[in-house]
Design a protein that fits this description.
single chain; 137 residues; alpha+beta; 4 helices; 4 strands
């Protein structure tokens, strides 16, 4: 397991390339909160947007997840713990005002980039609506 990449995976790089081509800038491998261990694959701290691109095996993709036959109990515990940690992380970040988006490694980079851009546009529009001073009627 020590040889498994935790950052700069091929799916992450492909999504970053798509976003960069569209003119979007981002931070990578970001520690989101000082007291949380989690690090987002991509983040926009000003918008409080955290993006995770999860591997199908390690994070339990409903379409592609497999469980090794050898040492079955150990792997079941390990993979179930990963999934539970992901849910706890999502809950902790959302309770602090973060928008969390998770994608699977099998999704196309363009599809992921489209959804990220859509989320960024929504967050920017929300911020603008919240800061606009409306004249009295």
């Amino acid at each position: 397991m020590s040889r498994q990449k935790s950052k700069n995976t091929a799916p992450e790089i492909a999504v970053r390339r798509c976003l960069h081509e569209r003119g979007f800038r981002y931070r990578i491998d970001v520690k989101l909160e000082p007291d949380l261990r989690t690090r987002a694959d991509l983040a926009w701290k000003g918008l409080k947007l955290a993006v995770f691109i999860d591997g199908c095996f390690w994070h339990g993709c409903p379409q592609h997840a497999t469980r090794p036959a050898a040492n079955r109990e150990w792997w079941a515990k390990k993979l179930d713990t990963n999934i539970a940690r992901d849910r706890r992380t999502d809950d902790a970040l959302r309770s602090r005002g973060w928008v969390v988006r998770r994608f699977w490694e099998h999704q196309t980079p363009e599809e992921i980039a489209d959804k990220i851009v859509e989320t960024i546009d929504e967050l920017r529009a929300r911020d603008l609506r919240g800061s606009v001073v409306r004249p009295d009627d």
